[in-house]
Amino acid sequence: MPVKVAAGRPAKLSTRASRTSEPPIGTLMAQALTIPGVVSLAAGFVDQESLPAAEVLSAAQVVLSDPARGKAALQYSSTMGDLGLRRDWMRRLEREDGITPATHNFSEEHVIITNGSQQLLKLVSEALLDPGDIVIVEAPTYFVYLGIIESLGARAVSVDCDAQGLVPDSLRAALQTLRRSGDLSRLKLVYCMSYFTNPMGVNLSGERREELYSILEELDESGETVYLLEDAAYRPLRYDGPDLPSIKTRDTGNEFVIYTQTFSKAFSPGFKLGFGLLPDALVAPVRRLKGNADFGTSNFTMQLAEELLRSGAVDRHAAELREMYRRKRDLFRQAIHEEFPEGVVTVDPAGGLYVWAQLPGAIDTGPEGPLFAAALEEKVLYVPGRFCFAPDRDAGPPARSSMRLSFGLPAPDAMVEGVARLGRAVRRVL
Known about the structure:
single chain; alpha/beta; Aspartate Aminotransferase, domain 1; Aspartate Aminotransferase, domain 2; 2 domains
């Protein structure tokens, strides 16, 4: 017998639920799934054919073929995550950056495994932010994180980002503005993608890494402790140039920098595993919040990840991805050069999965604008640039005339066809 659902009776929602907007990516994904024949240059998904099913099957067989290990894997783990996996990730930090407990004042108790790095962003933000507090973000920035800031009732303040990443002089100017207005004490966090940003694909230069950390030290000396959330999600997907040391390497006292990476981009998003190294003062509050949220990340998934890391499968797969995505990026750039009209300026990424495109200022790339409608008619999707800007920067150029394009998900032929379709849409609107 069908259940009757009452209509027209609004729920008494919490303040947080009421102020949280619908995530833009949800609408874009729905369009990608419901429009027949659409090519999505919007979704930040990894290449479907690259997913390491055989490697995961092999790891599962190893874990489950040992009765004791298999049963342990199917039990709960700790809130902070499997100790063996946390230690494995600590060894990777040492290999990548020379960061060790002895050099940077931490232990495995400062390492947390989360349900994707997105959960770490949320937990850290919940631990630090009250309504009215301030987070400094790049312009443009990772738009999903803007949703977290909004849901907590905090305010995002933008600083400029160029081909070398976050601009320190723009950060200093923003701090001066907050100091003059009396709001500096509300600043709790600076969010920075230090490797191949989403959406611009740019790498924070070595000089700016040094200067950014120096600004944190200056703030602390003046009595204003501000944390830096360093999101290194795309670090393994580097196609050109050297691997620069993280900003976390400067934080030898483990005081200011929260460092996070993810299993998603360089191995498998289906694992939903993120890794974080927390300053001492944040360990207990983040652990409490995570304990209340989920009791801890999936132990079975962590056991598989531990086996895959120790067998070398993760490193081998990341190397294969770098070669594959380098070829896709080059093909993507060539297609853009051939299909887009003059006047469209793109940023060439040295890593990551995105190309940032800036159209002539009069063109509105937003979801209600003429280009988005033309692109839908051509059956191709992109991310409107204004989604990637905080409210203080989303009202005009460059936010309203930019777009994020991804070469991660589509197969090469579909990717080239998608660029051709988008190029036709841009020409029509121009």
